[in-house]
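pinned: reference chain
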Amino acid sequence: MIMNKRALILCTLFFGTFLMHAQGPVRDRIKTLKVAFITERINLTSEEAQLFWPIYNEHEETKDNMRKKEWAELQTNISRAQELSNSESEKLLDNILVLQFNKQKAEQDFLSKLRTVIPAKKVLLLIKAEEDFKKQLLRQYRKRRGNG
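pinned: its structure tokens
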């Protein structure tokens, strides 16, 4: 169970980092593929789609901003963890905990909003579709690199 959670966290970080560093057309293409993948998997009605996509897009932007902030925080400070004083280490750890809390809160808010515009079953299908998309993207990436 713990290994699965760690693997999921690593995969999510990899996917987030990949999307963050993907440039222009590549990033747009991945987003387009993701939208098509989700659309196919959760089978929204046109009324549901009109309510769903603005909430989803806002959440994706929030996650992207959080990812960038987390990356900046970690990139800047974690590499020099050995050199940090105890008070600096405490402050960095507090910042990381706040970032993690904010990500979890954003996810809870997102799921709560979705429940008001689409049925719970479709919310669950969305969660599965996002995980399946990440796995598929990772498989394709490995295949292109010759590791899959």
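why pinned: The helical segments are 2-21, 24-42, 46-77, 86-117, 120-145. The CA atoms of residues 15 and 134 lie 7 Å apart.
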